[in-house]
Amino acid sequence: MTSIPTTEQAVRDGGARHILPLSGGKDSTALAVYMLRRFPDTRFELVFSDTGAELPETYQYLARFEAILGVPIIRVTALDLLGVRAKAGRTPFDVVLHEHYGGFLPSPQARWCTRMLKIKPFERYVGADPAYSYLGIRADERRSGYLPGRKPVLISDRPNILPVYPFKDARIGLAEVKALLEESGLGLPPYYEWRTRSGCYFCFYQQIGEWQGLKEHHPELFERAKAYEKAENGRTYTWVDGRSLTDVEKLARRHEIPSAEDLDGCAICHL
Ligand code: SF4
């Protein structure tokens, strides 16, 4: 990868597209607020890769973003990528799971979901045009994958898509991110009351306390997540390593929800 451009260098480049990928999480949303305000003359494209399995709160939050900021969000899915028509009751995740991975659920070791449902639809949308992708990695990140000296977090390693880190450039941390969201009228996404990160309702990065939160807040989604664990091709898959969601719901103790700042996960889905 060529050297990482600064925010000022990137926004001044009139020959490239300027993409703000949104995950529905606080950092990417705050970055979009920040960039739209700070650089009103730059034509940003806001892009959300929809797995079809996001939390209802995420869809509502993105709709509120559009209403408050007055900017449309472009939604892309793996269905566009695969040339498959949308059908009621079948999400992009379902299509990829059954038609490409034989019911083999994704996991931290086999994270095909991010590649197929988030990255590839995004790359298809950008195409071969020169583009900057502005990423909401904060200046105060202390998670191992985000620290100096590590490979920088990218949404795509295609040479025509250059990453830019405006929060790092401007030394913006968590307090400023929260303030940006409060001042905009959006506030934090409401699921942060019981879950640490954006992403699919069944995300395997969830901790036990978050699964318990899913059951409390969205019992129907918890049941749907359980249904994916049925045996397929002679194998049983589980979202949580070593135990099924039926085991999780039998736990007597309510587990704490850890701080997102201490958890590694998927920087693309969880920003
Ligand atoms: S949120 Fe989790 S399950 Fe969904 S695509 Fe990202 S890593 Fe995969």
Write the layout of secondary structure elements.
Elements: H1 7-11, E1 17-22, H2 26-38, E2 44-49, H3 56-69, E3 73-76, H4 78-82, H5 92-100, H6 112-126, E4 131-134, E5 161-164, H7 166-169, H8 174-184, H9 208-217, H10 219-227, H11 245-250
Helix pairs in contact: 2-8, 9-10
The structure holds iron/sulfur cluster (SF4).
Iron/sulfur cluster binds next to helix 6.
Uncertain residue segments: none
Distance between the termini: 22 Å
Bound molecules: iron/sulfur cluster
Strand order of the largest sheet: 3-2-1-4-5
Number of helices: 11
Order of helices and strands: HEHEHEHHHEEHHHHH
Descriptive overview:
The protein contains eleven helices and five strands. By secondary structure, the chain is an alpha/beta fold. It has a domain of 188 residues: Rossmann fold (3-Layer(aba) Sandwich). It has a five-stranded parallel beta sheet, sandwiched between helices. Helix 2 packs across helix 8 and helix 9 crosses helix 10. The chain is globular, with a radius of gyration of 19 Å. It starts with 6 loop residues before the first helix and ends in a 21-residue tail after the last helix. The relative contact order is 0.17. The structure holds iron/sulfur cluster.
